[in-house]
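Its record is retained below.
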Amino acid sequence: MGNNLSSDEANRQRNHPQSYAQSSSHHSHQPLSFNYSDKSNAKPPHDFVVVKNPQRHRERNMAPSARAAPRQQSQSRQRNRSAGGNELNCPTCSAPFGVNIFQCGQGHSSCVLCKSQDRSCGICGMALTDMRNYLLEDYVSQTKGNCPHAEDGCKLVLKVSDIETHIRECPFKIQTCPLDPEYETCVWSGKLKELSNHFERYHRERWLERKGDNVQEMQLNNVVSSCSQVYLIVQGFFNFLFFLQVSEINREVYMAVQLIGTKHSAEKWIYEIHLYNKNQSRKKYTFTDNCTSNVECIKDVFDSKRCAVLPLAYINSFVNNGSVTFKVFVKSLYERKPLNSNTDSNQAGRVGN
């Protein structure tokens, strides 16, 4: 085979043995590109490709030539955000979802209020079914939110699963006058901050405002016939109700104090009732107990005798000039100043809702 090589091919094999081997047609189907250098002035072979200063990595502009079109949101998410501004709000009424969440036939969610009012889905218009969205319910129940009465003064932040329970005893909800038909006839209703003004204007004889160490003296004139009385005690930021009931049938007198607030807050307060006879300095009756919440029916408190209970025969021994004289003290458990008949130990300090 060597005898058949032309003079040009022989020179190529002798001067560039590696290049010759790589450029053979039976080893490569495409010509190779590489730098060619030769100190001689000889021209490169005709089947060589000479590349000078090759750029191995050519930079490319990765920026698109035009802006991408904005991605269109789903209809349900658009409706949900536009309705309430929050994906945890019901798209039908824009209110927070709450604990129970129902779905329409298309799977869109709505709150229990919309379901109870037979509203149509706010997204597709279909009827709401009994199908529940348990996955969303579980997520919503773990999120926290403000009390619906936050604008009226409630500062509590609770889990959504606890808000419904809190609303039933929140002191900042709409209040009715405690002088209901069982005591007197008054149909007033309003906010807690308006209750004191209502008593001062329409039931002033039942309105007691505590300022400093001044504790008003109270009197019970009827200690024989059945009667009921209720007083509003305003003490700092807090409002208390003092209930007194004379039962001619049971031959007993019941007294108790309730905080207008939650059960948890009521546990932070105690009350003392001091009965005394001004003509007998040593004759005195003192009763101390925890306040209960006004959420609890006062009749249940009296029936279970979780209050001061005095026999009519005994309380009549305190009668002086036809009436029984007494004082009611309310104190926070966080205060150390002792209670006595001359001073009111409770200072105006916030304990909580």
Q: What stands out?
A: The chain has three domains: 77-142, 145-173, 175-332. The two ends are 107 Å apart (CA to CA). Residues 145-173 form one domain.
